[in-house]
Amino acid sequence: MSYVLCDKVRELEPYEPITGSYKIRLDANESFYSMPQEIRDEIKEIVQKLDFNRYPDPCAAELIKAFSDFYGISPDNVTATNGSDEMLYLLASAMLKKNSTVVVAEPDFSMYNFYSFLSENKVISYRKNDMFGIDTDELIKTVNENNADMVIFSNPCNPTGQGITAQQAKKLVESVNALVVLDEAYMDFWNESILSEAAQYDNLIVLKTASKAVGSAALRLGFAVSNKTITTALRAVKSPYNVNTLSQKAGTCIFRHKDMLIERTNTIRENTNQLYNELVELKTNYKLPFDILEPCANFVFIRTELAKSIFEYLLKNSIAVRYFGSAGALRITTGSGDENKELMSVLERYIIEQYLSENR
Ligand SMILES: *Cc1c(COP(=O)(O)O)cnc(C)c1O
After folding, report:
1. CB atoms within 10 A of CB 85
2. If one looks up domain 37-256 in CATH, what number appears?
3. CATH T-level fold of 7-30+260-358
4. Domain boundaries in the chain?
5. Can you tell me which atom of ligand 1 is nearest the CA of 109?
6. Which pLDDT tens digit goes with each residue over 263-305?
7. 44 CA distance to ligand 1 middle (Å)
8. 85 CB near ligand 1 (under 6 Å)
9. Quick check: CB of 158 below 6 Å from ligand 1?
10. 113 CA distance to ligand 1 middle (Å)
11. Could you tell me the pTM of the whole model?
């Protein structure tokens, strides 16, 4: 007997985040906050009473209610998934027929491309401009000229931290005969959301996650917000018990701590802006070859010919950031005040020890 993997999967390698243990993790856009003790205690109680022998609620009703209350929307328009990742896969596979046309923007979150590839969609890339902005009219043209079935992008964008306004996003939704999937994973850090209007459109799905501002990447909680017709379809295609009971209950508890979440989100925003300002100052002081993009999310994107050497130097000093080889860029998630201070001091040391000595 023999079995040969199909071409599509033969060359694939498992997703590999940065492995090893580093003192400071600024590589995955997670929140630098750990969960407060008060909430940990509440979750301990939840675990004590958990019905381990029973399947989870397939509708995740309590969780969806807590999520919806937090964002001020109706629970009827929300589908919960095992991270946004599960929904991205469903959108590319179950929600589209094979050989459908999907427009992605580049550069953007690589998972959009990956799930479309697995689902055997035809992918059309819309190239962003030199400063990584989206020209909404150009994107509309790309979608319409290709008769695309779906267009998907993140706003603000991971990895660039750049975004389009709510008005531009709505213009796009109103100008295409395609399903628009707007991934607002980082919108908590900016102010151009169209989440509360998502249900008014025929062709819009807004994605949210608990992995970033909500500081709960470990729980794997994603949310799709759309009109009732689309919502019914999404609930029908997802696997019934996709969100486990512990994550449902812990997530419910966390979303109910609205003041704490908002306060933390504000601090993350402030830290990001401060990090950006300090990086710009460093660039000016040492005349560095850096293109630093003004951030709309919780990370700073720097295009520089020094990307690889800075990335390696930081790793040696136990600081992990994200390196994009093909773009020649670094993406640095904001850390706590102390973490950012350490990052800046190691960066400055790199410049003095390596960059200046080689470029004298
Ligand atoms: C981190 C991130 C998500 C969240 O994915 P989860 O599966 O919910 O953790 C979604 N979209 C983008 C663009 C992200 O960067």
Report:
1. 16
2. 3.40.640.10
3. Aspartate Aminotransferase, domain 1 (3.90.1150)
4. 7-30+260-358, 37-256
5. 13
6. 999 999 999 999 999 999 999 999 999 999 999 999 999 999 9
7. 27
8. yes
9. yes
10. 14
11. 0.97
